[in-house]
């Protein structure tokens, strides 16, 4: 008899988590999705609810959780600055207490555990592109610190549980990822620019738009997650996962305007504090260890993301105009 792997996904109703749950179900796993719906939404996973191997649990990872599983993907944490700065103390609690609880669970069940860390651990970097050996430059008391330091301390916990208790760990440092099911009001650059362009509103470029980011399409990232989890035990990471293609924010604005055929103008706004000036992953380690690299070009990924937001905005307009019953 085929024994299904039991996989726990925390933050499974979020943007990345919902794609991960879908992928794991397709791979024949039994999936337990845990989420407190802070930034996630049931609509991201309603299409999975009929699957007998999918189970959904409303739970906050800052509280202990006793379940049985073979693997854990720990994604629970608000990811966009607007969301994680809304209640910064809760963000730190989610990162740290959440990591301790999930590591405790992994220790008891001897499950392998994956941590969704972030390029934010590099802060506003002095080296470019960033590789995993770089220790980062983070302001410990700034507005991003609840997230950045929370994620840095979570990495510390993962490596200490690994060294002290022999846990199998996998730490991925995720760079900006985009795609369908991003939260429409999360304030992130891709979702903001697309919704602004589709509504014909001015595109808000912060600063002069010369800061750079690298954008990875969600499908590519999820492939990296699964490959890292399946890699041999000695591959613990931290491992950068992202798309090394680098664009200025102004370039992104221009591409989105062109692809949506929008007449939106560009509105330059003040740059938020601690906004990193450049960010681009060095993915040599992932390429050499997992044979992984992103395949989806920015314009291809934007096409399906724009289509998603186009549908979503129409649906939201229908609701506000009372056209749906
Ligand atoms: P998201 O906000 O869509 O998903 C996070 C999920 O975690 C949501 O469903 C939310 O409700 C849930 N959650 C938050 N606090 C929780 C708690 N205390 N208990 C249980 N559930 C909780 O964001 P995402 O983009 O899918 O990010 C997923 C993970 O990947 C996060 O850990 C984030 O830090 C990391 N990450 C994402 C990106 C990116 O570009 N999307 C980049 C770097 C790191
Ligand atoms: N924990 C959990 N589920 C488990 C086992 C542990 O949520 O199945 C939590 C528990 O609250 C504990 C934390 O994980 O405080 C850390 O566990 P660990 O075994 O490392 O430490 P201890 O139990 O000694 O505090
Ligand atoms: N940004 C922007 N306009 C927006 C939203 C974001 O110019 O409407 C900029 C932001 O200042 C940053 C970049 O786009 O330089 C990426 O922002 P995001 O919040 O998406 O991610 P992060 O800063 O965490 O990489």
Question: What descriptive keywords fit this protein?
Answer:
single chain; 325 residues; alpha/beta; Rossmann fold; seven-stranded parallel sheet; two-stranded parallel ribbon; 9 helices; 13 strands; globular; binds nicotinamide-adenine-dinucleotide; binds uridine-5'-diphosphate
Task: Note down, in words, how this protein is organized.
- The chain is of the alpha/beta class.
- The protein has a domain at 6-179 and 217-242 and 281-296: NAD(P)-binding Rossmann-like Domain (Rossmann fold, 3-Layer(aba) Sandwich).
- Helices cover 38% and strands 17% of the residues.
- The chain contains 9 helices and 13 strands.
- It has helices spanning 15-26, 81-84, 88-109, 145-165, 189-198, 218-230, 249-260, 284-290, 298-320, and strands at residues 6-10, 30-35, 54-58, 71-74, 112-118, 169-174, 177-178, 203-206, 212-214, 216-217, 239-241, 246-248, 266-269.
- Strands 3-2-1-4-5-6-11 form a 7-stranded parallel β-sheet, sandwiched between helices. Strands 7-10 form a two-stranded parallel ribbon. Strands 8-13 form a two-stranded parallel sheet.
- It is globular, with a radius of gyration of 19 Å.
- The structure holds nicotinamide-adenine-dinucleotide and uridine-5'-diphosphate (2 copies).
- One uridine-5'-diphosphate binds next to helix 5 and strand 8.
């Amino acid at each position: 008899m085929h024994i299904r792997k039991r996989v726990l996904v925390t933050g499974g109703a979020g943007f990345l988590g919902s794609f991960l749950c879908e992928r794991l179900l397709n791979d024949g796993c039994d999936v337990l999705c845990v989420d407190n719906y802070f930034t996630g939404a049931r609509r991201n996973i309603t299409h999975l609810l009929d699957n007998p191997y999918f189970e959904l649990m409303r739970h906050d990872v800052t509280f202990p959780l006793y379940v049985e599983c073979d693997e854990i993907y720990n994604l629970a944490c608000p990811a966009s600055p607007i969301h994680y700065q809304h209640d910064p103390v809760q963000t730190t609690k989610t990162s740290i207490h959440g990591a301790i609880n999930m590591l405790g669970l992994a220790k008891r069940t001897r499950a392998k555990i994956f941590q969704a860390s972030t390029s934010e651990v590099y802060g506003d970097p002095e080296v470019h592109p960033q590789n995993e050996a770089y220790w980062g430059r983070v302001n410990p008391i700034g507005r991003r610190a609840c997230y950045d330091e929370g994620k840095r301390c979570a990495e510390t916990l993962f490596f200490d549980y690994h060294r002290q208790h022999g846990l199998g760990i996998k730490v991925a440092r995720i760079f900006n990822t985009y795609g369908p099911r991003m939260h429409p009001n999360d304030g992130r650059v891709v979702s903001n620019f697309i919704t602004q362009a589709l509504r014909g509103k001015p595109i808000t470029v912060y600063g002069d738009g010369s800061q750079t980011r690298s954008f990875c399409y969600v499908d590519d990232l999820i492939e990296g997650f699964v490959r890292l989890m399946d890699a041999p035990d000695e591959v613990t990471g931290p491992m950068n996962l992202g798309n090394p293609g680098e664009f200025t924010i102004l370039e992104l604005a221009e591409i989105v305007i062109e692809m949506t055929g929008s007449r939106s103008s560009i509105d330059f706004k003040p740059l938020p504090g601690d906004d990193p000036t450049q960010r681009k992953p060095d993915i040599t380690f992932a390429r050499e260890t997992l044979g992984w690299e992103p395949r989806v070009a920015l314009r291809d990924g934007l096409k399906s993301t724009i289509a998603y937001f186009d549908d979503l905005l129409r649906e939201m307009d229908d609701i506000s105009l009372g056209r749906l019953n």
